[in-house]
Amino acid sequence: MIRGAESRSLRSEYISYIIPSILAQWVYTLYTAVDGLFVARGVSVTAMTAINISSPFVTALFAISLMFAVGTSTVVSISLGADQHKRANEIFSQNFVFLIGLSLVITGLLLWKLREVAIFLGATDATLPYVTKYIGTIAPFSLVFIVSYSFEILLKADGHPKKATKIVMVGVILNCILDYLLVIVFPYGVFGAAIATALSQVGVTVLYLKHFLSKEANLHFTRFKAQPKTILRAMRNGLSSGITELSAGLTVYFFNHAIATYLGDEALVSYTIVNYVNALYVYSMTGIAQGSQPLISFYHGRQDRNSVKKLLRFGMVTAAGFAAVTIAGSMTGGWLLSKLFIPASQAHLRAYTVHALRIFCLSFLPVGFTVVLAGYFASIEHAGKAVSITMGRAVVVLLGVLVLMTHVFGGEGIWWTTPISESICLIYAALLYMWHGPWKSEALKRECRLDE
Fold first, then answer.
1. How would you label 256-284 residue by residue, b for 16+ Cβ within 10 Å and e otherwise?
2. What is d(CA 86, CA 106) in angstroms, rounded to the nearest whole number?
3. Nearest CA among 42, 63, 51, 250 for reference residue 146
4. Is 219 left (phi over 0), alpha (psi -120 to 50) or beta?
5. Rounded distance between C-alpha atoms, residue 371 and residue 367, angstroms
6. Which of 113, 172, 255, 387 has the fewest CB atoms lying closer than 10 Å?
7. How many Å apart are CA 282 and CA 300, to the nearest integer?
8. Over the chain, what is the mean pLDDT?
9. In the predicted structure, residue 148 carries a pLDDT above the cut 60
10. Are 103 and 146 in contact (CB under 8 A)?
11. Overall pTM > 0.70
């Protein structure tokens, strides 16, 4: 439940939820970045690029988990807001069982078509062995990747946002230690990086299970009668969040193919580094949206219109602050970042990476507002609006602008694609909010659809 909602100020409650959520997103971003850093140092920059090529696969696992976790958390939080605790436990338990079955299916498909998946993601002759090794090692652990991320979101809905952050911090620390041991000390290369990430996810999953099986938890595993409509409702409510999570992976996928075509393999190294910054920022915005979600859904369940509007305003201000800091850091700190990953012998590649980052970072301001608006619509169960925003920025507008920019400007147009496409999507999201906001649709005055 949302503990202290009545006794604490709304701003304090908001801060107590978004800080752990943002930190958790940073930790998830660090999993791939840490793997890349150790592999760049312990193997080669080509192997690091292979991990970036593989990242849409890991992102897809998290996106599937997030779709069901956010959707389930929305329904659970609304149920708690309406004092329907038994129903909340049943929805929570059904989600867990469903994710187990889904994970097993995904694992089987991945192992069956491993090489095809690697080529589909954009593996070249040079990177294919590394990509198949990385994905093939993680695939058997798909269950813990999906379940752990789901538990992290639901632990917030359970009223323990700080505990969720502590657990994911344990995971990233464990990943760093194992990466050092299995890549640097014992030179297992890409396999070592993959198994380090997988084992760290096993560790955090055990900690989450320990919580939900304890008396401290408000949400508990319980017997339930299968309710397919509830699963579909969770999918609908969480789809926009899943697409937002997947958007980073889709961007990597589209850009890897475009860069390989127009700029060559060396530019893939630059994009790998640029993408680490982009992923950190986009996931920070996702953290704001996810951190606000239990609160917005809770007050939506109580039909407290003013609190919902204030929470949205808090989110927009937070996004603007993050954008200002990240853009300034990208403009001034690109050299330090490039030195961290690229050896001094490739000075020209360092310079090109800095150039690409300074263009790409212009997208950060519109991204923040768009992600927060999409998360807001999802939290009040306006799934169609949320999905239209996220589909635009993840696929439709992004692809259209990418094709246009590369056709007109060649490889240089790739770096300008995201700033332009995200600005277009922000205009659409803002118009959607003005035209169909809750003050017009009376969304917060209608009865909550708890029995759909």
1. bebbbeebeeebbbbbbbbbbbbbbbbbb
2. 31
3. 63
4. beta
5. 6
6. 113
7. 26
8. 84
9. yes
10. yes
11. no
Nearest alpha-carbon partner for 329 in 357, 366, 353:
357
Q: Which residues contact 334 (CB under 8 A, 6 or more apart)?
A: 353, 354, 357, 358
77 vs 431, higher pLDDT: 431
Most confident of 156-170, 258-272, 430-444: 258-272
Give 298-352 pLDDT, tens digit per residue: 887 777 888 888 899 999 999 999 999 999 999 998 898 888 888 888 889 999 9
* Backbone φ, ψ for residue 382 (5° rounding): -95, 65
Give me the half-sphere count of Cα atoms (radius 13 Å) on the Cβ side of residue 108: 6
Is residue 313 within 8 A of residue 385, CB to CB? The reply is: no
Q: Do residues 308 and 299 lie in contact, with contact meaning Cβ atoms separated by under 8 Å? A: yes
Distance CA 304, CA 329 (A): 38
Q: Which of 132, 135, 137 is nearest to 115 (CA)?
A: 132
Distance from chain centroid for Cα 146: 12
> Which residues, in sequence order, are CB contacts of 129 under 8 Å at separation 6+?
none
